[in-house]
Amino acid sequence: MKNDILYSFRRCPYAIRARWALLICEIKVEIREIDLKNKPLDFLNNSKTKTVPILIKKNSQVIEESLEIILWALSESKKENIKLIYFPENKKEAILKIINENDNEFKYHLDRFKYSTRYKNSDEEFHFTNAIKFIKRWNKLLAKNKYFFGDSPTIADWSIWPFVRQFRLACESQKRTNYFESSIEKWLDSFEKSREFQCLMYKYELWEPSSRKIFFPFD
Fold this sequence. Notes:
Number of strands: 5
Strand order of the largest sheet: 4-3-1-2-5
CATH architecture of the largest domain: Up-down Bundle
Number of domains: 2
Order of helices and strands: EHEHEEHHHHHHHE
Oligomer: single chain
Radius of gyration: 18 Å
CATH class of the largest domain: Mainly Alpha
Structural class: alpha+beta
């Protein structure tokens, strides 16, 4: 295998944060955009979890967790001191704690708010109220600094903003108002209005075994 391969789905927040890390770390991969309702056999054969993103390294080793892909991108990047900048040693514990909070608590309520019809006996309002608690907590952090842990982003910001974006989209679709305070709104806007966002959210054609190779980030 000549290239590292990323199986991705454009709108998935886990895949978004993996692509964001690859983009910032300047790691070029072959990207394979898939349909989650019609997953290709090659993807299924390589993935134990059957979810995106997965990264297949040149040596055929498979990385199945988006956070692991982020850490791999940091270790592979040729950019100077990038790991010290985005995952500083003295903030590692706090960074991993807030990512875990997002992935295991906020995401739980976000899913049951956004997709309430998919979950039996799900109380949409209950999960919205609990999701808002995290939004307010994070807003307090961002009222003190531009990013969660200071004036520069860390992998905590990389890992969480796609889910906050998903929350905003869910609120907009349900015509809810006053779901954000100014600090967290500015923080999210700093990602969505960045020059990198257009590249990040480029709409690739669905991958098939006969498809030509397409790379991310594209030239």
